[in-house]
Design goal:
Length: 77
């Protein structure tokens, strides 16, 4: 069986991702965002939050990102 609605949605997404404007956004994301999270997971072993609640998670993520920035800063200086 073929799910026609699913196939239509896949084609829609494929068409959207092949547009120049969309591909430019994804190219930029690869260089700006993804390496930071990869670094957090691989080098700092940050794979899970240890708290619950949106504000606490935001604080913990802020501390983790601050650690990444401090590491970069100390490597430069």
């Amino acid at each position: 069986m073929v799910n026609k609605k699913w196939e239509q949605q896949k084609e829609y997404v494929r068409a959207k991702l092949s547009e120049e404007k969309t591909s430019a956004i994804y190219r930029k994301r690869k260089t700006d965002v993804e390496p930071v999270f990869g670094f957090l997971k691989a080098n700092l072993r940050f794979t899970r939050f240890s708290v619950r609640g949106k504000s606490k998670v935001e604080n913990e993520m802020g501390l983790a990102l601050m650690a990444v920035n401090l590491r970069k800063f100390t490597a430069i200086n």
